[in-house]
Design goal:
The chain is of the alpha/beta class. Helices cover about 40% and strands about 15% of the residues. The protein has a single domain, classed as 3-Layer(aba) Sandwich (Rossmann fold). It is built from eleven helices and seven strands. InterPro entries: AB_hydrolase_1 (IPR000073), AB_hydrolase_fold (IPR029058), AB_hydrolase_sf (IPR050266), Peptidase_S33 (IPR002410).
């Protein structure tokens, strides 16, 4: 599909049920919801965000532009009002979209997001290094060198193993298949803009949000879950589900529990 500023986005609809629009993590990565199974009830609307994966490799990379792209995907699939499911950075993007267009979002599923503030990063770094264990030396070596494409993938897989409590190698390999170049420009630009947004502004905006929100946390996520507490407190209509013994990608580690949480929250047709 083509956005209003002429950028080509890859998008796909999987399944035949009710539509749910998915926003993947990153920034600068691509859709990894090919392993997401919500059963026959839902049709997954998936897409690669601009500059990444199978979408056109060009910006601009701003929060406003990314929100507009979410709306373009919704409109491109002929949807008036739709539930949105976002993971990690995509959870923040889904939240920003709901704040901008609440009349177009019937519900938000906020999966493994990092909340509204930025003081979680030091604890995350400590948890990450501890989770890497003896892989840390190779990860640091790759980080410091000029990498070819095979080494880029190796670095990502090493990094992603820390996001899981068990079977990290297998799950990280699944996330890296298929593999596309990471868009570091998009990652840097969007991360900087997010850090520049004061938490108090987002809290005030969330207090006025009438869209029902489900927050799903893996209790063992290396991103500290207390970082999401201010978001939970600010939302007028919120449900929070914590999955014990689960890391950053709960639909891979506990697919049944994850699916049950989503299905219980979203109203049936």
């Amino acid at each position: 599909m083509i956005t209003d500023d002429g950028r080509e986005l890859w998008t796909s609809a999987t399944g035949r049920g009710e539509p749910i629009l998915c926003c993947h993590g990153g920034p600068g990565l691509w859709d990894m919801f090919g392993t997401l199974d919500l059963g026959s009830r839902f049709r997954l609307i998936r897409w690669d965000q601009r500059g990444a994966g199978r979408s056109e490799p060009s910006g601009p990379y701003t929060l406003g532009r990314m929100v507009a792209d979410v709306d373009a995907v919704r409109e491109g699939h002929g949807l008036d009002r739709v539930p949105v499911l976002g993971h990690s950075w995509g959870a923040q993007l889904g939240l920003l979209y709901a704040l901008a267009y609440p009349e177009r979002v019937s519900a938000l599923v906020y999966v493994s997001g990092v909340g509204l503030g930025h003081d979680w990063r030091p604890e995350f770094k400590r948890n990450f290094e501890r989770a890497l264990g003896d892989r840390r030396a190779r990860w640091a070596e790759l980080r410091e060198k000029d990498r070819d494409e095979a080494e880029e993938r190796e670095l990502a897989v090493l990094q992603w193993t820390a996001d899981f409590v068990a079977d990290g190698d297998r799950h990280a390999e699944a996330m890296a298949t298929p593999w596309f170049p990471v868009n570091y420009e998009a990652n840097a630009a969007l991360s900087e803009e997010m850090r520049a947004t004061p938490e108090r502004e987002l809290v005030e905006a969330c207090r006025a949000l009438t869209v029902p929100v489900l927050i799903i946390d893996g209790a063992a996520d290396i991103r500290p879950r207390w970082a999401v507490d201010s978001l939970e407190r600010a939302l007028p209509s919120v449900t929070r589900v914590r999955l014990p013994g689960v890391g950053h990608v709960p639909w891979l580690e506990e697919p049944d529990a994850f699916r049950a949480a989503v299905l219980d929250f979203l109203p049936g047709s």
